[in-house]
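User: Please predict the structure of the protein below. I'd like the answer in structure-token form so I can feed it into my own downstream comparison script.

Assistant: Understood. Taking the following sequence of 383 residues as input:
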Amino acid sequence: MKSDIRVALAVSLGIAGAPALLLAVLLAAAVFGGTVWLWPRLAGRGARAVLGRAGLQLAITLTMGVPLLLAVNSSYGFYGSWRDLRSSRLGGPEPTGTDPSGRDGLLVRGTHSWRYEGSDDPAVVGRVEAVTVRGARSGLTAQAYVYLPPQYLRATARRREEFPVVLVMSGFPSTTRVLLDLFRYPRLALDTVRAGRMRPSVLVLTSPTVAPPRDTQCVDVPGGPRVETFFARDLRAAVASHYGLTRDARGWGVMGLSVGGYCALKLALRTPDAYRAAAGLSASYEAAKDAATGDLFGGDPLYRRENDLLWRLRNRPQPPVSLLVASGPADGHRYPRTQEFIEAVRPPARVSSILLDRGARGETWSRAVPAALEWLVGRLSPP
């Protein structure tokens, strides 16, 4: 009973939860009230009074900033838990056990413990493995989680080739853990499968930031990290080889949030022989250029245009891929750009959309993620 209470309290006070935000607001209000009450007593000129006033001002600044930061994190999904915030490694899980192999480019570092309706039996809920993927072509290394549904665990080697595979990307800045702690993709997948709305599928959860701290926007940077190659070639090959999954693009889909959404749509449009379906949630449609990205295209304007999704749709033949975009007013300028993207898609490409008329970005994601995952798996048909 005490253990259950501690777990419930930890969940309710999670970094992205409403109770944590309310507690931070109450604390800020209490500090403000205390400052108003104590200020007249610290009106003197002595060192003690000056230090007291400085301390109160510092306390107000800190406590007033916490609710704002929690609200921003809740809206944008940067971190999914306090542990995630403390971690200095992208996607750094705390796995148990190790697999000393990795000859196929994938090293299983351990398993992530989780429960579903009181059970943690892999035969019932599946298994989440913490892995390291090493790219043979790109030379890049990334941390990821792989969710293996219970149906996969009891399938024969031949049947495992029939499972759809979905690559899920977080945004930037963010970590892989946000996909477990905040969006709970394994639980979502199990819910949808048990409701009969989706086939059992293997999920690969990761971050688009595989060359930290740089935000590469999933670009093969001239003279720099080859991130598109990593996701289009290396990761697929390593996951398929290690888990005995299909290599056929018809069995692979990719979805993501924000920067991850841009990566997902771009991978399908630029490498349809790797991913045949993609979903972008609150996605941008062109690569950013700021202090975090630097020059991603080596000063080549044509290469930049080739990575501009609207330009590609209007100026290049469209591949036979299925695309989903989700957006709402909270996405700012991306909302009308989403409308432009939809209008620019032509056969053989196909597009579906989830357009909301109101709500914060976090609400957009919470409403769109389940539908997007279900839609994406429904477009995959492993041979």
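That's the full token string. Residues 1-17, 72-101 have pLDDT under 50 and may be disordered.
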